[in-house]
């Protein structure tokens, strides 16, 4: 069977269609908030929360509850917690993320060891597996992604102002503290959306890569976000199809493709255009 | 006719933990004033301004000002070191309009016309499509001034606005401020450059933790017993802390 026939055959499978819908949802929401996180130098928040998601999935599996619902609850809570302790306690933001991530990985690993039986399930949440995506995951991912997109559109100008100059924004009357919490919650929700298709370990890459690729050639904040969204949707789509055709874990395929595109754009702009 | 106070600060004290940065400072700013706030490094000027703007909590005293008054603010050291920051000059200046808008704070086409008019005013309209990080320090300073001016403020608070400018640009900047002031805008300016600012401002406030001097530039020079252009020697404590002379 030629690769073209294989490709057409892929679209006959309901799980591939489900994976594409979830993939597009995560691509849109992660790249929409990615610009704000990367430019506020909060990229590692997504990384830290992905580790928290690992522990939350382990808790969900151990308690025999929906891992996504448990994760949505825990990750949202922790995202606000990280913000609070980095603002109020004498702990730098990166240190707060580092200690939360390390604690979460230790907790997740311990729970996996105690639970024993759910190790295989946990692996699929770590690196993403399109085979495991259920109808409820599709609904949850699409709803969360639409919510993230609408909120970013509604607060777009305030987010841009705060990302560029938080002090000026505060003086202008923008509630920067509330906006920071909102951004942390959106990040948490995006991590949750991405767990099934990308996996907890690699989801932060989807927040960072499309934005830093777009930043290589974009001019204007709005243009950066639009380019990042389009790039991310295309890469996730190709990564999912590629993972199906080549039998690779979907998360790894998507992240590797993101890295290749970034390297290509980066080299083009640093070596050829300059 | 009695002039109206638009800022009244009384016994303002601001601390960073055990360190008192501003101690019992009292003053008034009246409509139409053009005031230079000066003092040596670490004297509490920026802290006082941050207290005025509500960015730092007061540990003592009070500040009253008309909450409805549109305020333009130019923070200290706003320069974009991040060349990769993608926002264009237009986008940065348009954020200056958000404070006067209600949710969802949309930027309209008319707003963009206002933005471009102000960019024209500060002579950087040609750069409007450039990334903010690609501009020189002086160009960025004019963009941030445009951002402070775009909401048509009646009170302008500028923290070290000329620090990135050469002497020619400083003269141009102060000429521009004078015109704004003559059009009715009240200006409070934190500066080290009293030699240039002195020619333009109505009043000099000198502080070093406490407010030490608060009067005209001529009186300031008299106080120093020095030429107005020699400003490197700080004033000796000739007044009581916190006293208000004006």
Task: Describe the protein's architecture and organization.
The complex is a heterodimer of chains A (274) and B (246). Chain A has helices at residues 3-10, 14-39, 43-62, 67-88, 93-115, 119-127, 135-154, 156-164, 166-171, 176-194, 203-215, 221-246, 250-272. By secondary structure, chain A is mainly alpha-helical. Chain A has a single domain, classed as ABC transporter involved in vitamin B12 uptake, BtuC. The termini of chain A are far apart. In chain A, 53% of the residues are buried. Chain B contains seven helices and nine strands, in the order βββαββαααβαβαββα. In chain B, the strands form two sheets. In chain B, strands 5-6-7-3-8-9 form a six-stranded mixed beta sheet, sandwiched between helices. In chain B, helix 3 packs across helix 4.
Notable features of this structure?
heterodimer, A: 274 residues, mainly alpha, ABC transporter involved in vitamin B12 uptake, BtuC, 0% strand, B: 246 residues, alpha/beta, six-stranded mixed sheet, three-stranded antiparallel sheet, 7 helices, 9 strands, 25% strand, globular
Give a brief description:
The complex is a heterodimer of chains A (274) and B (246). With 274 residues, chain A is mainly α.
Produce the secondary structure layout.
The complex is a heterodimer of chains A (274) and B (246).
Chain A: H1 3-10, H2 14-39, H3 43-62, H4 67-88, H5 93-115, H6 119-127, H7 135-154, H8 156-164, H9 166-171, H10 176-194, H11 203-215, H12 221-246, H13 250-272
Helix pairs in contact in A: 2-3, 2-7, 2-10, 2-11, 2-12, 3-4, 3-5, 3-6, 3-10, 3-11, 4-5, 4-10, 7-10, 11-12, 11-13, 12-13
Chain B: E1 5-16, E2 19-30, E3 34-38, H1 45-52, E4 60-65, E5 71-74, H2 89-94, H3 109-121, H4 137-149, E6 155-159, H5 167-182, E7 186-190, H6 194-197, E8 203-208, E9 210-215, H7 217-224
Parallel strand pairs in B: 3-7, 3-8, 5-6, 6-7
Antiparallel strand pairs in B: 1-2, 1-4, 8-9
Helix pairs in contact in B: 3-4
């Amino acid at each position: 069977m030629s690769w073209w026939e294989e490709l057409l055959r892929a679209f006959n499978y309901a799980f591939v269609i489900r994976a594409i819908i979830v993939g597009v949802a995560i691509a849109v929401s992660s790249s929409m908030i990615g610009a704000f996180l990367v430019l506020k130098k909060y990229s590692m928040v997504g990384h830290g929360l992905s580790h928290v998601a690992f522990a939350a999935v382990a808790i969900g599996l151990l308690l025999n509850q929906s891992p996504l619902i448990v994760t949505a609850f825990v990750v949202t809570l922790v995202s606000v917690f990280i913000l609070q302790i980095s603002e109020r306690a004498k702990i730098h933001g990166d240190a707060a993320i580092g200690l939360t991530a390390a604690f979460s990985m230790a907790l997740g690993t311990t729970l996996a060891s105690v639970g024993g039986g759910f190790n295989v399930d946990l692996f699929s949440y770590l690196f993403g597996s399109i085979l495991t995506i259920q109808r409820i995951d599709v609904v949850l991912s699409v709803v969360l992604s639409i919510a993230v997109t609408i909120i970013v559109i509604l607060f777009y100008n305030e987010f841009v102002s705060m990302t560029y100059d938080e002090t000026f924004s505060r003086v202008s009357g923008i509630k920067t503290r509330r906006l920071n919490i909102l951004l942390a919650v959106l990040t948490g929700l995006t991590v949750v959306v991405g767990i099934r298709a990308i996996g907890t370990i690699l989801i932060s890459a989807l927040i960072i890569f499309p934005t830093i690729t777009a930043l290589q050639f974009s001019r204007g904040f709005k243009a950066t976000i639009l380019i990042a969204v389009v790039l991310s949707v295309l890469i996730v789509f190709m990564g999912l199809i590629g993972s199906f055709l080549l039998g690779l874990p979907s998360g790894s395929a998507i992240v590797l493709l993101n890295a290749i595109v970034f390297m290509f754009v980066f080299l083009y702009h640093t070596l050829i255009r300059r | 006719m009695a002039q109206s106070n638009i800022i009244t600060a009384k016994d303002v004290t601001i601390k960073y933990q055990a360190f008192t940065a501003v101690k019992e400072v009292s003053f008034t700013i009246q409509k139409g004033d053009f005031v230079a706030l000066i003092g040596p490094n670490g004297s509490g000027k920026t802290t006082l301004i941050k207290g005025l703007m509500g960015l730092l909590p007061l540990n003592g005293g009070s500040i009253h000002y008309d909450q409805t008054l549109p305020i333009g603010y130019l923070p200290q050291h706003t320069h974009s070191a991040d060349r990769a920051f993608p926002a264009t000059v237009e986008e940065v200046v348009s954020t200056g309009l958000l404070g006067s808008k209600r949710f969802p704070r949309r930027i309209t086409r008319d707003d963009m016309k206002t933005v471009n008019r102000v960019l024209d005013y500060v002579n950087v309209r040609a750069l409007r499509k450039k990334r903010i990080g690609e501009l020189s320090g002086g160009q960025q300073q004019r963009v941030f001034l445009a951002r402070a001016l775009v909401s048509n403020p009646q009170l302008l608070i500028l923290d070290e606005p000329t620090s990135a400018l050469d002497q020619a640009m400083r003269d141009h900047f102060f000429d521009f401020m004078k015109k704004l002031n003559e059009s009715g805008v009240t200006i409070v300016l934190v500066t080290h450059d009293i030699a240039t600012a002195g020619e333009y401002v109505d009043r000099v406030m000198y502080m070093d933790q406490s407010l030490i001097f608060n009067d005209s530039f001529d009186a300031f020079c008299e106080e120093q017993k020095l030429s107005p252009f020699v400003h490197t020697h700080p004033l000796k404590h000739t007044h009581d802390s916190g006293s208000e002379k004006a």
